[in-house]
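All the exercises in this workshop are built on plain-text protein records. A record pairs a protein's sequence with a compact description of its fold. Read left to right, the backbone structure tokens trace the chain's path through space. Once this layout is familiar, the rest of the handout is easier to follow. Here is such a record, shown just as it appears in the course material:
>
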Amino acid sequence: MSITDMTQNRQSTEFGRVRVSVQARAVDCIVTAPQPCKGPLSVSDRSMRLASVDAIQEQVNVHSVLQRKPQAHPHSVDIVKALRWAMEKIELERSLREQGKCQ
């Protein structure tokens, strides 16, 4: 389910337990995913903020490799999906702006 926050023109959605929020015009992407802590049952959310298409693509590449070991990196598949979704939103905004349909 996608949510749009009109006050900041930010769109958010979830892929599994991974949340992604993107402000396409500013090329600002925040991905939040659970990460195991040192304790046996402890998990905390970890966020990463990416401010360029190159940074997003770099993390897609990193997590594409990590998803090959699902026991060690159980959320990498969802992180890749979330980052690709963010890139689609950014590319759509960019193409609309180039066509003059977005201010």
